[in-house]
């Protein structure tokens, strides 16, 4: 599906785009536009009431997915997604530290995580819910349950940090990917609830990482990160020109004179 985004207005009015002979009004050019459509020249009478249009106009179309995941106009939509999803993550972490779940997570020696993992293992063993895979049930039994205390604190802080990053648009794609990994862990352990909805929105934010945080800190952070990766150069300094190899010039006086070679004549030959 293609969404019309307007017409090109950056070409000369009276001539072809390559600077050739003028093209009559209404003519169809043999070459194709950037999207494969043949470009036309609008009649002068049709352009009179639309001064913003020029003579040479190729139809410009962009795919809906490109507009959604790259256009800055779509960042308004992603802002709404970020505000809702970020608040949900912050609230989940807040409840585990200061809210109604603090006694089972932050102060309860990881009782909430231990009970969650134990239920997943038991459900997997009985075949009634719980962990869907035996290897994941083994992971819950051998790693999560013995380390439930620090895992509960880690999850509580991680949920708040994920929510803040998504809400503020700070490395939105990375924050959404981290939240998605937690959703996958919860769903693998047999808990659905709100996790499928969070996972779907996180996947969309990861796909739209270029413009999802445009109305946020990513508008400044991503360009700065790109400059840091490529190596920052002070624009006030003159450009560094690499030295060129200078050919060595040998003065004529240093060249030894050529010695003529004398070839002895054969016996009996005329001198």
What is the compact description of this entry?
It contains nine helices and five strands; from the N terminus they run βββαββαααααααα.
Q: What characteristics describe this protein?
A:
disordered N terminus; 5 strands; 271 residues; single chain; three-stranded antiparallel β-sheet; mainly alpha
Molecular structure report:
This protein has 271 residues and is mainly alpha-helical. Among the domains are: 2-13 and 21-62, no CATH class; 75-207, no CATH class. Helix content is 46%, strand content 8%. The chain is built from nine helices and five strands; from the N terminus they run E-E-E-H-E-E-H-H-H-H-H-H-H-H. It has helices at residues 44-47, 64-70, 75-97, 111-126, 134-144, 148-168, 172-188, 195-207, 218-230; strands at residues 2-7, 28-32, 38-41, 56-57, 59-63. Helix 3 (75-97) runs antiparallel to helix 6 (148-168) and helix 4 packs across helix 6.
């Amino acid at each position: 599906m293609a969404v019309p985004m307007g017409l090109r207005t950056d070409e000369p009015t009276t001539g072809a785009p390559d600077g050739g002979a003028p093209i009559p009004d209404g003519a169809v050019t043999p070459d194709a536009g950037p999207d494969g459509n043949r470009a036309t020249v609008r009649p002068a009478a049709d352009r009179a009431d639309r001064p913003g249009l020029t003579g040479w106009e190729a139809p410009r179309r962009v795919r809906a997915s490109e507009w959604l995941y790259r256009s800055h106009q779509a960042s308004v939509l992603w802002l709404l997604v970020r505000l809702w999803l970020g608040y949900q993550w912050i609230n989940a972490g807040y409840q585990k530290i200061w809210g109604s779940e603090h006694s089972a997570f932050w102060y309860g020696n990881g009782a909430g995580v231990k009970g969650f993992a134990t239920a997943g293992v038991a459900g997997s063993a009985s075949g009634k819910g719980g962990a869907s895979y035996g290897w994941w049930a083994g992971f819950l039994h051998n790693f999560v349950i013995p380390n439930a205390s620090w895992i509960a604190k880690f999850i509580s802080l991680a949920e708040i940090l994920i929510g803040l990053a998504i809400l503020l648009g700070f490395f939105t794609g990375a924050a959404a990917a981290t939240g998605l990994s937690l959703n996958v862990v919860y769903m693998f352990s047999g808990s659905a609830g709100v996790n499928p909805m969070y996972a779907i929105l996180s996947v969309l934010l990861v796909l739209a990482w270029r413009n999802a945080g445009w109305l946020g800190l990513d508008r400044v952070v991503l360009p700065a990160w790109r400059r840091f990766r490529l190596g920052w150069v002070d624009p006030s300094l003159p450009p560094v020109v690499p030295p060129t190899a200078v050919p060595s010039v040998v003065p004529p006086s240093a060249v030894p004179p050529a010695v003529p070679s004398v070839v002895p004549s054969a016996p009996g030959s005329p001198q």
